[in-house]
Design goal:
Layout lengths: L2 E5 L8 H12 L3 E5 L10 H8 L3 E3 L4 E7 L13 E6 L3 E2 L8 E6 L18 E8 L2 E6 L11 H12 L1
Parallel strand pairs: 1-2, 2-9
Antiparallel strand pairs: 3-6, 4-5, 4-7, 7-8, 8-9
Length: 166
């Protein structure tokens, strides 16, 4: 396999033997794609939380429309998007800002929805999609994808396809 996808997974999905094999797989050149609740998986496994995903889910307001700033318009997952993308989602707040340890592809503007609570700086930096190299492998995470209906949206599907192909 070129990539393993954690699609709205939550809790612990791998046992200790599987965790060791998965880590080796990624670090020796495999790919990881985390979609939405993938950031709510294996909390407490430091490698997964910090090195692979980059941040973990803490809370979210109810799904609502907000504006996304596409900060990298050359990455395969975001190159098809306008600089500003408006969409509905369940906007995740994370335990830390992954900027610095990952390459941020898009941020959500906290000023454009109610119940925001991640950055404490009036929406200036709330990453929602990012990628990174992990050993010889790659990791791509997208906070989008809460509702099944979202998987019928062309822009969202192209976003996921680009992340998977990367």
């Amino acid at each position: 396999y070129d990539a393993v996808v954690f699609h709205n997974t939550t809790g612990s999905v791998l046992n200790e033997t599987q965790k060791s094999a998965f880590r080796e797989y990624v670090e020796t050149g495999g790919g990881y794609v985390g979609i939405h609740a993938g950031a709510d998986t294996h909390k407490g496994w430091q490698w997964y939380d910090e090195e692979l995903v980059g941040a973990t889910f803490v809370s979210h307001p109810s799904p609502q429309e907000a504006e996304i700033n596409v900060t990298d318009r050359t990455h395969p997952s975001t190159m098809h998007l306008d600089a500003r993308w408006v969409r509905e989602e369940e906007w995740y707040d994370f335990n830390r800002n992954p900027r610095g340890s990952t390459h941020v592809l898009a941020t959500v503007d906290e000023r454009t929805y109610s119940g925001a609570g991640m950055d404490g700086q009036q929406g200036r930096d709330h990453p929602i999609a990012w990628c990174s190299n992990v050993g010889q492998g790659r990791s791509f995470y997208s906070g989008f994808g809460h509702k099944g209906a979202y998987y019928e949206e062309a822009d969202f599907l192209e976003h996921l396809k680009g992340g998977l192909m990367w």
